[in-house]
Amino acid sequence: MNAxxxxxxxxxxxxxxxxxxxxxxxxxxxxxxxxxxxxxxxRVQATDVLLLQGRRMLERLDQGGGVLLxxxxxxxxxxxxxxxxxxxxxxxxxxxxINLPMLVKIFNYPQLDxxxxxxAAVEGGQRGxxxxxxxxxxxx
Length: 140
Prior knowledge:
Shape: globular
Strand content: 15-25%
Number of helices: 5
Mean pLDDT: 93
CATH topology: Rossmann fold
């Protein structure tokens, strides 16, 4: 039986945020189990240039299973670029709101297909956001 095609992962973020997140994941896990890359978006860059770079990255990352694009803030320039890239790519999905718990979930389940990986990314990201309250001393 053939192994399922692995998906690729492209982080489309403001500045170096994507690199910082991947560096942190590498510190936590060692070598990452998915092919990944980061498209840095800066205010001074032309959108057409970023789209061209992004398309090249998608081609390199897609190993037959598609590419999951993660972006930092819905409605931002990186999010809009990621969405435009996905529109041109038959096997691509976009999730906004990248955070460390989302990446932990993704890298712990690298065998998932694109649809399942997309759901896992959203779930991991949502479950990682919560209010943290200090413990209250027991009342006597």
